[in-house]
Amino acid sequence: MKNLSALLDGRKYRLDLFAMDHSGPYQTLLPHCRILAKNKWIEALIGRFSDRRNLDRVSSIFIKGLRYIMSKVGLNLTAHLCRWAARRLSEEEYDTVIAFSEGVPTLMAFYVVSKNKIAWVRCDYSNYLKRNGYPNERVIYKSFDSVVCVSEYAKREFIRCMPFMAKKTHAICNVIDTSFILDASKENIDDARFDDDKYIILSIGRIDTVKRFSQIPEIARSLLDRNCKFRWYVLGGIDQFDEYLKFKENMKRFDTGYSVIWLGEKNNPYPYIAHSNLLVSLSSSEACPNVINEAKILHIPVVCADFGSASEFVEDGIEGYIVPLEQIADRIEKLIKNKEEYDRIKKNLSKFSYSNEKALAQIQMIL
């Protein structure tokens, strides 16, 4: 949303944003949007418990407990809250309503009255269904005029699950505000634990099973045993606490010492990317991996696992490597020890430029 709002013509479009959760720095990053008043009950239901404080935590406990109780008698509290909030939004008579993510935002947009409805799918939809207990969303998606999937792979998976939506579904890559990234990458790094005198490997994302960060210590141990010298930093918040504990336990189990360091969530990750030698993604599933595009914009080589959309975003052997998880250590070792190979990929990336022209034209066609 931040990137799209910055790149659309503000003279032609007025953008109102209804945020499900008002925590974090997003309001300062969206100067082109009018932020609508929050709905405290939806925020209590949807927002992460770790972001809640005092009475907000009490509200979150209450509403999530109520949702659980209602589900036992076949009632859907989330749908009731979305329907209630949508009534107020419908009073504005918006020309277009956009759900910028699958799940609850799409449910919310389903209830808002509008002449044009667009749903964004930013995930591998088949994986989303599996992780969420296979919800039946056919009726919801039938109400949308367009569905935007953020890669060809994501489009194929969505259509496989929702074949009746094939003619309304488009593959449109994420737009990226490259000027913002380049400017933000020049800011000072605010964490003394980050030491760019070493060979820096960086992984970014929320800590959950899909990102497979708990595998990093074992890979790092393999590299250390091969006499590779590096620091592997992980940036991101905790989405699944069990996965975070597994990550920390594996750091002890594989005795990574100071070679693997979790830095937590950063409002501005771009200086960290710019000061890294290598970006590594171990994800088992990605629809459109923004962090890979951002690394390429900053001319940082990439090593990633062979998830479904990987070949759309990394030119294998040119911009980095796409390999199965079990070969990640081999490829990292090659780039650490073979300076000629690393410099070749770095040189290739020096010519990379991200273009939003096609994506913006596609988006304007369906607005």
Short description, anyone?
The chain has 367 residues and is α/β, with parallel strands linked by helices. The protein has helices spanning 2-7, 40-46, 55-72, 77-90, 104-111, 125-131, 138-142, 152-161, 178-184, 216-225, 241-253, 270-274, 290-297, 310-313, 328-337, 339-349, 357-366; strands at residues 16-17, 34-35, 96-99, 116-121, 146-149, 169-171, 200-204, 231-235, 260-264, 278-281, 302-305, 320-323.
Count the helices. How many? 17
Run of helices and strands: HEEHHHEHEHHEHEHEHEHEHEHEHEHHH
Percent strand equals 5-15%
Query: From the alpha-carbon coordinates, what is the Rg to the nearest angstrom?
Result: 21 Å
Provide the low-confidence segments as ranges. Answer: none
Q: In what order do the strands lie side by side in the largest sheet?
A: 9-8-7-10-11-12
Relative helix content: 40-55%
Q: How can the largest sheet be summarized?
A: 6 strands, parallel
Mean pLDDT, to the nearest integer, reads: 91
Structural class: alpha/beta
The N- and C-terminal alpha carbons lie at a distance of 14 Å
Shape: globular
Work out the number of β strands: 12
**Tally of discrete structural domains:** 2
